Every structure is written in C-alpha cells, then in structure tokens.
Amino acid sequence: MERQTKRRRKTLNSSLQQQIIASSIQTRSKTRSLVIDFYFPDECWEFVFKFLINYGNSDGNNRLYLRCLSFVSKQFLSITNRLRFSLNISNSTRPLLPRLFQRFTNLTSLNLTHFRGDLDALLAEISCFPLNLTSLDLSQKPTIPANGLRAFSQNITTLTSLTCSFTKSINYSDLFLMVDCFPNLQMLDLRYSYDVSEEAVVHVLRTCCNIRHLNLTRCSRVKLRTLNFKVLKLEVLNLSFTRVDDEALNVISKSCSGLLQLLLFYCSDVTDKGVNHVVENCTQLREIDLGGCDKVHANVVASMVHSRTSLRKIGAPPGFDLSDTEKLFLHHGCYVS
User: Fold this and answer.
1) Closest-CA residue to 193 (of 167, 214, 215, 155)
2) What does the alpha-carbon distance between residue 248 and residue 201 come to, in Å, rounded to a whole number?
3) In this structure, are residues 194 and 217 in contact, taking their beta carbons and an 8 Å threshold?
4) pTM for the full model?
5) CATH: 3.40.630.30, 3.80.10.10, 3.40.50.1370, 2.160.10.10. Which one for 223-337?
6) How far is C-alpha 208 from the geometric centre of its chain's CA atoms?
7) What angle do CA 13, 19, 24 make, to 5 degrees?
8) Does an H or E element contain 4, and which?
9) Of 108, 127, 312, 334, which is most buried with the most CB atoms under 10 A?
10) Which residues, other chains included, contact 10 with Cβ-Cβ below 8 Å and sequence gap of 6+?
11) Distance CA 201, CA 22 (A)
12) In this structure, is the dihedral angle defined by the CA atoms of residues 192, 196, 199 and 205, taken in order, positive or negative?
C-alpha cells in the first residue's frame, strides 16, 4: 500500500510539473506575441521622445528625460543618442571628446562657455572630427581665439551662428577674422562686448550677406550711422543699451528695411522722430521694444499701431497707460506691454 501511494504521489507531482511547464511555455509564447504585436520602429520612438522633450519645454529641463530613457534599453540609448544636438564642453569633459563625438553623431551646436584652458588647442582638436556644426558659443572669454578659429574653420564650414558675448576684448581684426572664417553667418551675438567698433560691425554686415540676427546689446561704441548700403536679409537687430539716436535710426531703417524685430530697450537718445523713421521705412516690422526710452512720448504707440499694421508686439515707452486703449490695440492684432 505504501509503495502504491508513493507511486501515485510521484505520478501526480510529475503531471503537475508538466502542467506548470506547459503553462509557462504558453505564457512566454503569449508574451512574445504581445511584444511582436506592440513593436515600434525607431522612427516612432523618436517622435515620442521629441514630443516629451519639446512639449511645454520653456526652460530646457525636459531634456533630462533623455538620460532616464537611455537607461531603459540599448534601443532607447541608441535613439536618445541621435536626438542629442548640443553639447557643453568643460575642462572635465574634454578628455572624453572622442567618445562623445562618436556617441552623439547628430551634434550641431557646441557651447564652450565653461571651458577654462587653451581655447586655441581645443578648437583645433574639435576641427579634426567630422562634425556638421552650425552653432558655436565662445562667450565669457578674455579674448577671441584667433588661431583656434582659423583651424576650426578649415574643416568645419557649416557654421551659421556664432556667439561671443561678454568678451572682454574684441578688436577690429577679430571681427574681420570671424567673417573671413565664417562668411555664411546668419546669427552673430556680440552683446556686452564693449570694445566692438562701428567700423567693424559695418564690415560684418557688408561681408556676411546672409546675416539675419545681430545682437549688439551694450556695444556702446556702435550707432550704425555709417551704414550706407542695403542689408537685405537682416531680420532681428538688438541695440538695447546703446547710444543709437534718431539720425542712426533713420539710416538703419533705410538700409535694413526688412527688419522684423528691433529692440531699443533703454536707448535714451531715441525720440519720437527716430521711431517714426523706423515705422515708415521698415514695412514688415512685427516687434519693437521702446521700454526705458524716456524721450519717446507715450502717444507714439497709438500712431504706430495704426500706421504700421504689420506690428504684433510693442514694448511701450515710460508713461504709457494701456488700460484705456487695450481693446483697441488688441483689435488690430498688436500686443502692447
């Protein structure tokens, strides 16, 4: 009896094990089937990741999602690598550049603001890699790395945006070098570079025929009075905190009649006369900032809205009261702040 009981138990255990194994195999099969059914090609994942990064992204923090997503799988790592278009280079990341450039194959923008070292040598090193860069940021440097830019431009000819803001010393020859190295520039940012001269900026505008965006904030030596030729493609001009005056605005508005955005924040020498030159000659103007222009009368806002219908945003001068005219301006499709 005992032997028969043991045999029955073994048979039952064996049968139970077979059922468990069969059930496990069936579950795995269903799981694989589901995985196959829910497989997304890389292009779809790229779309999803771009949505996560860009949706509601006002401060750039959403890009941190890339780091989290890259931990999920090798497939996600490969996709997030392709979605990385900018790189900040510091002293700690420089030894890793070969690996980083090999990993992020779609880089278009480099920021060297936080690098403290031999900038000429770094730029020469970067030029040895097959990169299709369009943007370079060299802000907060004591001088312009002339030798490095020459080496950089020999192999990287795709650059269209150059930022050299807060540079302690930029002389005439530095700007000549920039346009010689990068004749296809569309954006040049020289804000808070106090040594920039009028003659050098005029040369930039004459030579770089494709320039669309020029930031001269706090470039106190520049007025652009000597601009005596057409700058057809310039769309955005920032002259905030400069000594530009009515005469200069008359010249600028005739030479740069295609301006879409003109920023004159705290330009204390500008009056109604200069503003009227701009409104009359810049027929496509969409935005103008007159904040802090204490010589511009508040009444000029109403005349601007009515005479230049392309305007969509106005930074009003001091003393302007929006309460009485808000509905009227909004009716014309212009936001006044």
Assistant:
1) 167
2) 14
3) no
4) 0.79
5) 3.80.10.10
6) 20
7) 125
8) helix 2-37
9) 334
10) none
11) 79
12) negative
Q: Are 271 and 296 in contact (CB under 8 A)?
A: yes
Alpha carbons within 13 A on the beta-carbon side of 172: 6
Identify the band that residue 2 occupies on the pLDDT scale cut at 50, 70 and 90.
Answer: low
The rounded distance, in Å, linking the Cα atoms of 121 and 127 is 10
Which residues make Cβ contacts (< 8 Å) with residue 131, sequence separation at least 6? Answer: 101, 107, 156
Question: Tokens for 78?
Answer: 């490969």
135-137 and 161-163 strand pairing:
parallel
Does residue 330 contact residue 305 with C-beta atoms inside 8 Å? no
What letter does residue 135 receive in the DSSP assignment? E
Output the six-digit token pair for 162. 């150059």
C-alpha to C-alpha distance for 183 and 42, rounded to whole angstroms: 37
Structural contact between residues 218 and 194, judged by C-beta atoms closer than 8 angstroms: yes
Q: For residue 213, what are the β-bridge partners? A: 187, 236
d(CA 142, CA 100): 27
218 in Cβ contact with 212 (< 8 Å): no
Contact 194, 219 (CB under 8 A): yes
**Contact in structure between 281 and 258 (CB atoms under 8 Å):** no
Residue 163 contacts by C-beta under 8 Å, 6 or more apart in sequence? 135, 136, 137, 138, 139, 187, 188, 189
- 66, pLDDT greater than 80: no
| pLDDT score recorded for residue 138 | 97
Q: What is the pLDDT of residue 27?
A: 57
Find the length of the chain: 337
Q: Read off the DSSP letter of residue 51.
A: H
Cα separation, 190 vs 122, in Å, equals: 21
> Cα angle at 57 between 87 and 70, to 5 degrees?
55
- Write down the domain spans for the chain: 40-83, 85-180+196-202, 223-337
- The residue-averaged pLDDT of 106-126 equals 96
